[in-house]
Specification:
Oligomer: homodimer
CATH architecture of chain A: 3-Layer(aba) Sandwich
CATH superfamily of chain A: NAD(P)-binding Rossmann-like Domain
Number of helices of chain A: 10
Number of strands of chain A: 11
Order of helices and strands of chain A: EHEHHEHEHHEEEHEHEHEHE
Radius of gyration of chain A: 17 Å
Strand order of the largest sheet of chain A: 3-2-1-4-5-8-9-10
CATH class of chain A: Alpha Beta
Structural class of chain A: alpha/beta
Shape of chain A: globular
Amino acid sequence: MRIGILGTGGVGRTLAGALSGRGHDVEMGSRDPEAALASTDVNQQTDTTLSGWHDSNAAVRVATFAEAAAHGEVLMLATAGDGSLAATAAAGDDLLDGKVLIDISNPLSWSDQGPSLTVMNTDSLAEQVQRQHPGAHVVKALNTVTASVMVDPSMLGGGDHTLPICGNDDDAKRQVTRWLGEWFGWRDVLDLGDLSGARATEAYLLFWIRLYQATGSPIVNTKVVRGRPGR
Amino acid sequence: MRIGILGTGGVGRTLAGALSGRGHDVEMGSRDPEAALASTDVNQQTDTTLSGWHDSNAAVRVATFAEAAAHGEVLMLATAGDGSLAATAAAGDDLLDGKVLIDISNPLSWSDQGPSLTVMNTDSLAEQVQRQHPGAHVVKALNTVTASVMVDPSMLGGGDHTLPICGNDDDAKRQVTRWLGEWFGWRDVLDLGDLSGARATEAYLLFWIRLYQATGSPIVNTKVVRGRPGR
């Protein structure tokens, strides 16, 4: 499958490497791919520069946001939250219209007071992306776990934990649910309804970050436990 | 044990009934106990008026905030979020100092746009209560589940799900963890550190409400699933 990933950070690389390794045709988009490949910044999640990572993942092309969007039959938005709207704007409506856009980004900022949501309550970053690109089928997914767990849920609890998703298009959510199972082995994908559910799953990050801090590891998630029907 | 519960709504009643039924000496506090007992409002969670509920739970006394605070060796703050600071102010520092105060309240407001946090990011309602009463040992707990699950976690998943707590006083958290086990059978109480963890567990409510809406039942919680040590 042709997959376009917007973002070349730790999340984008982890997804690109896993999907390329499973035989998919992956292109990653960057604002400035030449500068990104020349950068000496070592990414925490992959412990290497982009060019160092690319040496081991040569099948993945590094291109512009627009080129990656043009390439993908399905698109994944894996930028930092403060870059999400600029990335999809650079890709442009023509390349996004009618495509499933899996939004993994989170509207977080950090200060010495800890993490804060920059969008919250009656709006979410996913809804902002959807409003900016009405023709795209935005599905919020994968933003509630760390990159290594996104692509390998079996890392904890034998894979018995929950990935919440939401979006306005039921067909798109069904496709994403199937892909998450086929690509990565996600078994418990929970549909939280329309895209306003992203207000919940983005706010959940404040809880997830605290779990990370309290347990000392980002390899942590939650499993939704339901009561018996009728209770 | 002498327990003071601030608040006579559905959460306060459910806690008071369960604790009284287990032999504890419970007093509930209200801003105006006579008016509360005269009210014809039917509470959704208990499906009765306060006086109707009290007829079946006569061992529980309904008193003022200050009287309930004076009564309790341990206190539980079970008001609506917008009444929390007024309730503890009415109780007063003298009656709160040195006591464990389990804060169950959530800073939520509702509009036709859905739920919103009224305190968030770099502050929490629990921290506001703690700042207002520096001598109290505030422990945030039980705010992440519905009242019936608070007092009976076995209602779902055989009780195998998580209750996050936080607070600045380690002894108070140890006591609360023990009480939650003895009173209600909570087995997986997870310490999220100091009281700033309430920023996470209060924001989690936006996620919990969406789980409630998506699953169609408030009998829902999450279990924290951790990776193997060292991963």
